[in-house]
Amino acid sequence: MDSPTSKRLKMSHTQTSSNTTETGEINTNYSYYDGHYNQPFYVDKTLLIKELLKSGHVLISAPPRFGKTLNMDMAKRFLEIEVDEDGKAIELDVDEDERCLKEVQTRSKNFKLFQGKKILREKKFVFEHFGKYPIIHVDFSELVGHDFEEILVKFRKIINKAFRQHAYLEKSSLWDREEYNKEDFMNFFDPVKCASLNKFDVEEGLEILARFLHGHHGKAVFMFIDDLDEPVHTMIYQNMMSTEDKEDTIELLQDITRYLLKGNEFIGRSLSNSCLIFSTLILQKANNILYSPFMDDRMFPKFYGFEEAEVKYLLEKAGRIEDFNEIKEKYNGYKTTLRDGSHIELYNSWAIMNYLKTGNFDVYWPASILDKIKQTIGHDEIRSEFIRIMSNQLNRVEYCDMPDISHIESLSKILCKNEVAKHNDTDFFMQFLSDQGFFLSTHSYYKNISLKIPNRTVYSVIDKILGSIDAMKKYYNHSTELIDKLTDSFENLARLRNEEAVHVLTESIVALSGSKRTLNTKYELQSVLDAYMSQKFQHVVTKCRTSLHAKCDTVLVIADLHVMFIIEYKSVGPTNDLDDAQQHISDRGYDTLAEEASLKEIFPEDTPTVQNRIYLKIQLDRGSKISITYSFNNMEPNTVSKCELN
């Protein structure tokens, strides 16, 4: 989700607008869309606005940095009524006359933002909806705190900010009418008075604003709620609140959204953004919401993230279309089905834009979140779930469509204390990570979903998490002696390059499994070896290259000994190997293979010439047998086996 930190990052990219005035006060007219509509790498998503108007109240969820905030602000700028300093709506006679459109542009600050955009081709829609709606916009990413009282303080500020976005109401003729009381308005508009409001006033504050806007404009309000589930997100990751405070906070949010979205005659439509399934908990009392979860709905997904054609369009504009294949390997994989039955793959929009800007394949989750997840790997059950998914084994988890406080607390215990109370906690944790974009749901069954790794970026992130040496030592209960034995056996093999050295390596791998932990999947063995070798050999270069993406799994270069290991892992069970690495090496030769781009990139410029190549196929078979097939410098392959894993 877009945390307060990530929201600040968003604003830092906007050069044409500011969220503060020269005096340091909040600028209630700030618009995130202002800084993007005319950028050279802008992708036009304006037709989303037309789709939104087909429904009443809509909740859209998507993983972090898929453009939720930008799209919401875009819709707001298109739909909101513009007023003069007296609060009178600026009449914008938008029709099909191009001359009239030019006149509108001179009178409307918002209209220029959509010049040349797809939505203006929809002339009838523009005529009927551009600048026609009073808007209330709130951002729940600001609604975080250590306890319920702090949440109330923050929400009073959110309400005051919403009222001050409509400061013109202070001079409205609305107060001449008997049914409207200006004092009620001032209680929320005045920051000092608003700071003293009680809980019940806070619950009704935004609904009261909607009534005033409806009365002033004579039109139903369009409600926008950004980062709806951020308060729950904070509860989970920071574990600050007591259970009672969590319950009070959730109840407050439920009552606020019920007042706003359930049968409210003053609010005709709404759009809420979220990341987690907990948005359904917050909206539990407002049961008239069209919920559009990411990758599981056919109306809105193409407006969030970039389709393949849009990525190519951006690369062509940047003169870098040759980079597409590399980007496709790294970032694609979020697949969905549209209403016409066609399938699309969506790329994370922040990742693509960041690549165009920096040339780096950076991850799109905050480091704080990744660190929290990394801490969970020491738990047996959670680690096993990760490994099963990474090994492409069937991984089905029980699905929860209506979480409660107990789910919030179980996730908080997992992420902050590495505690799992029951098996269902693990299932919900994996579903939680799926909402965050770490997994993709491939099949849905009754109360169950199947998960898989969506793309190379996610694979690399989880690979690093699983590769945590501290987590592995805790999980496997490995001693320093066992780690040294394994890494010494690789160095010994690099020096001697004979069958006796392969036997020693085999013994060291057998020792890894110990009496309680068995390396029973291809990925588990690969991850252990990569992590331990990297820790031991500070002077080596290692590169995890799964068989899903390359001809082998790992390359290990021990520069001092001028030796390159090319390692392939095998395990019993289903695999997705594209080619047999041994046959590939036999056909192409070590020297040719080393020069291929997929392997060449791992060698730093100062690495001495590699004089010896060692191919190893480390295989885990039924019956707990480990086999190592080896070949030195294109010699005929030989195999040694050991049957003592248990």
UniProtKB/TrEMBL annotation:
SUPFAM superfamilies: P-loop containing nucleoside triphosphate hydrolases (SSF52540). Residues 1-25 are annotated as: Disordered. Residues 41-86, 107-244 form the AAA-ATPase-like domain. Pfam families: AAA-ATPase_like. Signal peptide: none annotated. InterPro entries: AAA-ATPase-like_dom (IPR018631), P-loop_NTPase (IPR027417). This is AAA-ATPase-like domain-containing protein. It comes from Microctonus aethiopoides.
